[in-house]
Amino acid sequence: xxxxxxxxxANPESGGAAPPRARALRRDVYVAAACGLFxxxxxxxAYAAVPFYNWFCRTTGFNGTTQVAxxxxxxxxxxxxxxxxxDSNVSGGLPWKFEPEKTEIEVRIGEVVTAYxxxxxxxxxxxxxQAAYNVAPLTVGSYFQKINCFCFTEQTLGPGxxxxxxxxxxxxPAITKDSDNNNLDTITLSYTFYPVREAAPKPVAAGEPDRxxxxx
Length: 216
Hints:
This protein has 2 domains: 17-60; 67-195, Sandwich (Ctag/Cox11 (Pfam 04442)). The chain is flat. The strands form 2 sheets. It has a 5-stranded mixed beta sheet. The protein is built from 1 helix and 10 strands, in the order H-E-E-E-E-E-E-E-E-E-E. It is of the alpha+beta class. The protein has one helix at 20-60, and strands spanning 67-68, 81-90, 96-100, 104-108, 113-121, 127-136, 144-149, 155-157, 162-171, 186-195.
């Protein structure tokens, strides 16, 4: 009686399972591919996080981010009034004096108001800054509408220059329908100016006279 030969599972033609070494290699390839995909996703998310966060804040008013309006409200101002306080700050490294013309005013909800800040460059050189802003409490960010604001662009001041800057805003009447703000009587608008890195001077092109020479 002849004993049948055992089936070799390592032979792909036999229809059996792949050998252990092949299975391990295949598993390593899958793991490496998954890790590569995860890293690529994280890198992409890192680049997209800041613009997405800024868009989210502007859209929802999250973290006290104010809204940008293109026109006054379509309804007449309400009788209800609210106090708006103005806060000013300057980050380290920017030699500016920055303060509001008035620290607090009372406005009607839906009323378009213009407030002024004054800024002075105390340095003996030209400096550039740009303001970041928010409002408190954070729940009113989506209702504080700014029509015009100096924070939208960089501000460059010459040595000792003083400038008056305006912010035009209104409080959206829709705030009266928000139960979270039923007892709200004060809003604080806060600005912080940060230094903007100065651009490096462009090199003088070959053959172009250097006007800087002899000017010292």
